[in-house]
Amino acid sequence: MAQEHDLDPAFPLHRGGKIEVRPAVRIRDPEGLALAYTPGVARVSQAIAADPELAYDYTWKSNTVLIVTDGTAVLGLGDIGPLAALPVMEGKSLLFKEFAGVDAVPICLDTTDVEEIIDTVLRIAPAYGGVNLEDISAPRCFEIERRLADSLDIPVFHDDQHGTAIVVLAALKNAALLTGRAEADLKVVISGAGAAGTAVASILVADGVRNVMVGDSRGILSPERGDLNDAKSNLLLATNPTGFHGSVEEALDGADVFIGVSGGTIAEDAVSRMADESIIFSLANPHPEIHPEVGGRHAAVVATGRSDFPNQINNVLAFPGIFRGAFDVRASKVTRSMNLAAAAAIAGVVGDDLAPDHIIPSPFDRRVGVTVAAAVAEAAREAGVARKGVE
After folding, report:
1. Cα distance between residue 24 and residue 60, in whole Å
2. C-alpha to C-alpha distance for 115 and 152, rounded to whole angstroms
3. Do 177 and 312 fall into the same domain?
4. Can you give the CATH number for the domain in which 48 is found?
5. For residue 39, is the peptide bond before it cis, meaning its omega torsion is within 30 degrees of 0?
6. Cys-Cys crosslink for 96: which of 31, 102, 107, 263, Cβ 3.0 to 4.6 Å?
7. Total number of domains in the chain
8. 224: β partners
9. Which domain holds residue 295?
10. Residue 275 gets which letter from DSSP?
């Protein structure tokens, strides 16, 4: 079986894992050993016991994020469990280091119980400067993030929600600019009311988009729906201002923007009824809800979650810089204003290169991480959650 796997180029790259722990200092003699460990380390530990803030200066806490998953919503694979989720979490750790110099430790929990997940993270959180929640299914992910953020004095960030939302907003800002639209005037239809769809809708509304409709497999969330759980009921309070009741495809009549974060397929006939010069972000991976070739026949701008088409909506544009900026000012949390600042920063990197096939920068554009980090750090200061570099 191993030889068969090695015919796939992905497997050799992953053999033995993709990350490792390396020393930041070297021990070459007894004197060095005495400083790195006992008795020298005892003096550092005593100092931290007297002043816990010193842990940011004399341990890895200031630059290390804990990545937490239960393996219930991994990529487009779904509930594959914690062990099968580990290669993805290793990859996340690798991206943190490559794109922002942030160290990350993946923890795959063998439980799906909300209380057990929260309790476990709270117990091990003192060793880390932030928590990145990953691939935890909705609606549990909403409660887990909220309660951890309320209980901890370090940034807690669910990337499947907010990373996606930040990059979508950045892309939409540039797509609206390119097509001569004001954000406030957009009619936006979102297919998917899970973690990503909820966060996308929330950040668009926060940024001034007034007409956002969100749909699930049973249609647009509306007052007539009697099957909404608490998360969807709360989402409805901020969306669908016209009270539309019907399917996602019906909602596309005259819509300026379609954002797909659900999978499934949208019929071309429905796409053709969108507004002129429409905008399509079809982000299901590997099979977009609207194939780019179909979208290209009707829309002015098309984006996907895939790397083999232009305008890839990729979370790596956001999460490394978010944590880099938060760590740089020792932020106690990630606020909505920090997320909005990150989106504006990502959009701004495109600058004069804005074009229908370039509304979002490449993940390999090294300006992205530093620009996002600076914007997030400044937003943290303005929000009053920064503990470093504040007069």
Report:
1. 10
2. 15
3. yes
4. 3.40.50.10380
5. yes
6. 102
7. 2
8. none
9. 159-391
10. P
